[in-house]
Amino acid sequence: MERKGYRHWRDIQLRFADKLMPHGQHSTISTELQSEQAAPVRGRGRPRHTAVRYASGMALRRLLAADSALIQIVDAAVADASRRSGEWLVCRSGCTQCCVGVFAINPLDAVRLQQGLADLEKTDSRRAGRIRERARASVGRLSAEFPGKAKTGVLDAGVLDEGAEAEKRFAEFANDEPCPVLDPETGLCDLYDARPMTCRTFGPPVRSEGGLGVCELCFHGATDEQIAACEMVTDPDDLESKLLEKVEKTKGPRGRTIVAFCVR
């Protein structure tokens, strides 16, 4: 599990963890992106650049269709875990604790976000424009210490490697930075249907190397056994990894990014 994206989680050390079936982890394979020429955007200080495009054309349409199937599987798993969790799961509209602090997203997340923003521009261009404004402001604040290539928004390859210098640097990076997709007035996600997997699965118990992790605001008073009974297996057939392998076959640079860089 990408711990940077689960900063507000508490790990549950299960006394009977060896009796539980292990489940697959989210893929961390490097993937290729399709890029467009970055164009400068007018503004103060040094020139800013438009977001790198992560897919286009026929490849994009096929990828979105397959991603839609993945989302249905994940959302069904979340709904089932939420039903079993009951009142222990306190995630509600307006709770924004998990919306503060940057985390790595893979190219599939980026494709989904960029398409969501493109769709929003057709129905509510002003709201889409506000997202871009917040994203560009965020990029402006983060570029100087960005652990990667600030021009493209691609993170250093080692940010997910436990113990690596890049991972340590990223762990301390921008932990107080609000997500630019979060509407600061309503406390709601403006691209909720297109949100990354980390956001989509946050809250219910998910297995990691240390046991089960849950949002630190949830499952207060629940026993280890009760938490384990609510465990969520989001992608049992590892469809996400298969889709990422397809993205890997496209042309362009490799790497992961953060939300602000792909929606600016």
Describe what you observe in this structure.
The chain has 264 residues and is mainly alpha-helical. The protein is 36% helix and 8% strand. The protein has one domain (3-24, 55-262). It has eight helices and seven strands. Strands 1-7-6 form a three-stranded antiparallel β-sheet. A two-stranded antiparallel sheet has the order 2-3. It has a two-stranded antiparallel sheet with strand order 4-5. A hairpin with a 6-residue loop joins β2 and β3 (48-49). α1 (57-85) runs antiparallel to α7 (239-248) and α2 (107-123) packs across α3 (125-142). The two termini are 27 Å apart. Residues 13-48 have low confidence and may be disordered.
